TrEMBL record:
Name the UniProt record assigns to this protein: RidA family protein
Protein species of origin: Shewanella schlegeliana
NCBIfam families referenced in this protein's UniProt entry, alphabetically: Rid family detoxifying hydrolase
Family, similarity comment: Belongs to the RutC family.
Chain segments annotated as coiled-coil in the UniProt record: none
SUPFAM superfamilies: YjgF-like
Annotated Pfam families: Ribonuc_L-PSP
Domain of life per record: Bacteria
Length: 127
């Protein structure tokens, strides 16, 4: 049976979807944008600031589900501009490290919601 995951510590859904769904011991998150959950506005700055906020939002959703960044198995990362790949990786490495980092796909998207620079989704296991 699936369980809807919701936290006030991450942005509310801006469409007909859940922040995440849990099934058995797995959690599947929706893509997390670099929105401040309190204001629903983008954080100021460039790719690094937006990447940090997206990953902070992802962490909040995972923790609400009983998971965490240490239980992430796979991420899918969407960048508005692949020229931001190196800068994005710097922030991503701060969160996930390099030892046993999650499997990952990282692609350039033609356009992200609200013209974000980055969006990140994950599959993790619940502790």
């Amino acid at each position: 049976m699936k369980t809807v995951i919701h936290t006030e510590n991450a942005p509310a859904a801006i469409g007909p979807y859940s922040q995440a769904l849990a099934f058995d011991k797995l959690v599947f998150t929706s893509g997390q944008l670099p929105l401040d959950p309190a204001t629903m506005a983008f954080v100021e700055g460039g790719i690094k600031e937006q990447a940090y906020q997206s990953l902070k939002n992802l962490k909040a959703v995972l923790e609400q589900a009983g998971a965490g960044t240490d239980t992430v198995l796979k991420t899918t990362c969407f960048l508005a501009n692949m020229e931001d790949f190196v800068a994005f990786n710097e922030v991503y490495t701060e969160v996930f490290g390099t030892e046993a980092a999650p499997a990952r796909s990282c692609v350039q998207a033609a356009r992200l919601p609200k013209d974000a620079l980055v969006e990140v989704e994950a599959i993790a296991f619940i502790k």
